[in-house]
Amino acid sequence: MWQTIFIRRLPGTFFPAAEVFSQAAHFHQHMLSLYVHIPFCRSRCNYCDFFLVTRLDHLDAYFKALSLETALRSGELKGRTVNAIHFGGGTPSLVPLHYLVAWLEQISALCTFADDIEIAFEANPEDLEDRVMKDMRAAGITRMSLGVQSFVPEKLASLGRRHTSSQAADVTSAASGIFNSVSVDLICGVPGETAAMWVSDLHAALELLPQHISVYMLSLEPKTLLHRNVSTGLVTVPDEGVQASMYELALAKLEPQGYLHYEVSNFCLPGHHSRYNLASWKREEYLGFGPSAHSFLRSSAEEIRFANVSSLLRYIAKPGKVLAFREKLSDEERFTEQVFLSLRINSGLDVEFLRKENKLGHRLSQTIDRFAGKGWVRLHDGRLYLTGKGFLFADLIAGELIFG
Ligand code: SF4
Question: How far is CA 34 from the centre of its chain?
Fold first, then answer.
């Protein structure tokens, strides 16, 4: 459900870094976050390229494998305090809750849960009844992330979603009375979408008062049905200019209502950022379980990234033992990641850090001045922040700041 996309802020608006991160003061360094990939969906939405299967016949075998992988990772969990757990997918809400409760019991015996741990759960509106949500809350889930995508029937049909507009609204409203934080995902730039439809989506979301809103611009991923339909001319998507103006509309609607723009695609009321996602953008450690799940671990000597294989059958055959890759990051890779990720969130990038490692040498200041002259970056207290306009060029800016 989580899409990587390219979005922008309104020109002239800047990150309220202090605001979000004072609220996030409890976001401890050296804590560990966990991600569990639940690779099952009822059907594949036409724009989605995540790793998943649309049959449930391996559900039981998957959870047995997940338990074996968890036991295998006990050494990496030992002595660690876990601050956030994120059940993503796929569609976690498709899975009977007892499987997840059993996994939570297993993992809680292998590490320490922070007192205020966030346990987040991605769900589709069509799966959630009040009773189910109350059971989830009783099982320890604190945050509900709803794959709403739209409240407009035409957009839901265009995206191939299975829920109705009223289901989305009813579930969001009910979830708000049950969980500490409720997040709503919205997508703009859908085939056939008008500005009026997008405004209607934003208003519908705001009326429901979720604590967190993610705004994605539809991206055309290779090998998806949507990509094929656009390539063959069956449907057209709004062009980049229209998408950018839709994003500007989102900023204009959300920020005045108190939603902090804390990451490229994410807005929250103070204190309601996604802990797991923010940890990954801040290069804090996380351990991923399940097929295709990524991990990032750090010791005093090294930083490593690895990912499980994107195959359910291979995962089930040898849980946690078949990796898609495992790499130790070089100093240069660490630096590059830090620059790209820091520019993505609203705490910005330390210019002294950038000065020590980049390849521009004395031309760094000139480059920053050039970007500032274009209105793409802003310097404040020794940190560099992208402006709204700058987000349109985030990768280009990061690349030039590193490599010249
Ligand atoms: S429900 Fe989410 S994960 Fe499943 S196919 Fe649709 S977008 Fe992808």
Answer: 13
Whose alpha carbon is nearest atom 2 of ligand 1? 1
Q: So what CATH class is 17-280?
A: alpha beta
Report if pTM > 0.85. Answer: yes
DSSP helix/strand/coil, 303: strand
Tens digit of each residue's pLDDT (9 = 90 or more) over 266-292: 999 999 999 999 999 999 999 999 999
Domain ranges of the chain: 17-280, 331-404
Per-residue CA distances from 144 to 97, 111, 137, 139, 362 (Å) = 14, 23, 9, 13, 48
Pocket flag, ligand 1, residue 287 (CB < 6 Å)? no
Q: Is the CB of 148 under 6 A from ligand 1?
A: no
pLDDT in tens, 65-119: 999 999 999 999 999 999 999 999 999 999 999 999 999 999 999 999 999 999 9
| Rounded Cα–Cα distance for residues 122 and 93 (Å) | 7
d(CA 86, CA 79): 20
User: How is residue 148 written in tokens?
Assistant: 């709403």
Residue pair 39/51 in contact (Cβ under 8 Å)? The answer is yes
